[in-house]
Amino acid sequence: MSRVRLEFPTDAILHRHPLSVRITDMNYGRHLGHDALVSLLHEARTEALASRGLREWDLGGCPSVVADLAIQYQGEAAWPDKLIVETAIPPVDGKSLCVYHRVVREHDQRPVATARLNLVLLDPASGKPVPVPAEVQDALLPAAAYPHEGDA
User: Fold this and answer.
1) Residue 16's CB: how many other CB atoms inside 10 A?
2) Residue range 60-73, pLDDT digits in tens
């Protein structure tokens, strides 16, 4: 079986966000469910963008949509584990933002998952993909780093 293998770009980390596994995040296997993980990633991504003054629904005047998502599961998490979700966005190449997330358990730094997704920006009038505006690219540059909330 071919597995997804992702390399997290540590040089492009924008934000670290603490989250806790909620009891409602558990699946019948008694660990963090894949559907709940996707929701936790969405929350961390929203916080990472907000730390740069950006909103997923208004990136330089354009809404965004998730075009694809890949997740490499690396370990388990369960209630009431505390997690740290690191978000990295490398320099823009094309008409999308490539967003990486790395999820680790706070107490032992063991990896839970690494994820990569592409956010495509859409023209609000036509709904067609557009290039990432320069102001969004600038806000995501490592030189624009803000203090990381929730640093462990």
Assistant:
1) 20
2) 999 999 999 999 99
Cβ–Cβ < 8 Å for 64, 97: yes
Q: Which helix (DSSP H) or strand (DSSP E) does residue 134 occupy? A: helix 134-139
Q: Is the pLDDT of residue 98 over 50?
A: yes
Percent of the chain surpassing pLDDT 90: 88
Instruction: Map out the domains of the chain as residue ranges.
Output: 10-142
| Distance of alpha carbon 23 from alpha carbon 33, whole angstroms | 11
Element (H, E) at 45: helix 34-50
Strand 13-20, strand 96-105: pairing: unpaired
Under the banding of pLDDT at 50, 70 and 90, the label for residue 94 is confident
Whole-prediction pTM: 0.90
CATH T-level topology, domain 10-142 = Thiol Ester Dehydrase; Chain A (3.10.129)
Euclidean distance between CA atoms 147 and 133, whole angstroms: 24
Residue 135's alpha-carbon distances to 47, 53, 60, 131, 138, in angstroms, are 18, 11, 7, 11, 5
* Per-residue buried b or exposed e for 75-114, using 16+ beta carbons within 10 Å of the residue's own CB: eebeeebebbbbbbbeebeeebbbbbbbbbbbeeeeebbb
